[in-house]
Fold this sequence. Notes:
By secondary structure, the chain is of the alpha+beta class. The chain is built from nine helices and 20 strands. The strands form five sheets. Strands 6-7-8-3-9-10 form a six-stranded mixed β-sheet, with helices on both faces. It has a five-stranded antiparallel β-sheet with strand order 15-19-16-17-18, with no helix packed on it.
Amino acid sequence: DAFLQIQNLEISFDGDRIIAGLNFAIHKNTLTTFLGPSGSGKTTVLRAIAGLNQKLNGRILLDGKEIQKLPVNKRKIGMIFQSYALFPNLTVFENVAYGLKARKKSNSEIHDSVEKMISLVGLDDKINAYPNNLSGGQKQRVAIARAMVLKPKLLLLDEPLSALDAKTRVELRNQIRHYQQQLGITMLFVTHDQTEAMAISDNVIVMDHGILQQQGSPAAIYAHPANNFMANFIGSHNVLDGKDLLRLGFNTIKNQNINPKALYVIRPELFSFDQKIENALEISGKIKSISVLGDRISCEFQTEKGLLLRFERLNKNSSFSIGKLAKLYLRDSDIVKVG
Length: 339
Ligand code: ADP
Ligand code: MG
């Protein structure tokens, strides 16, 4: 029951193949994030789905129908941009009402729907304000209300939070997730921020260089990176080869022989620090650097054999210091083979 299907999508600019044979599907009433570094082709794919000026090969199906040849206004797709794109000369009410007016809805219907939507995004007291008198977060909430009031089949959001400060970003991402679940909207949310993607998605699609690297739930993607790019992109620490694991003293992983040439990942939070745990390998070494991340402390650890590992622990008592000799403990079952 795929709701949006992208089949063999190819897009080129000036002879440069930017998207080369992309395939994915997303389900109704879910929030999927499209995650990838800058330049990986996220906006290009979003614009193709929305129908904004692109030549493409392949098929785009929405709710079972091919839409790749339909004009923008026939697709029933909403889009939200980083830059808000509000009408500066219209009030909050008029901005949100704009699309309904264009569709010749009755005045009473417009009033009802617009007021309800403005209330949902928490802007009742700003209903007659102009965009210039709103904060960035409030402007983006107007843009979200304006898109949602049209009840699109699919809502595309292109890095909608990138221009906001860190606190507003976290608040608004949680609110977007809340609207999505409360109203039952299918959303495709673009971001280059993996924390943001992990926090709000049912499903994550990771892109690099126009190629889909992995698709899955946030937990699955974190636990089982599909390839080298994914291992380094998500989490990005302790990507080791089998030879390094053998040097650390591991012989097998989950009763399987270690392949010296394969890649493995150890997530920093899975080490136990100076506290022996059962069935774990003891790794001696010393602390090389300490960064306090707020709720957590992240340390580089140099093993006796000269390997550099990163471990994290909760920021409770910080009774350790750089240069301190220490021991890490790790179970082989906490090591993940890449791929
Ligand atoms: P992202 O949104 O992931 O940052 P984009 O989709 O904007 O990536 O861009 C992907 C690639 O396509 C980049 O290399 C970019 O330079 C190129 N590109 C995007 N739009 C155009 C265009 N209109 N003309 C030429 N090249 C483009
Ligand atoms: Mg982009």
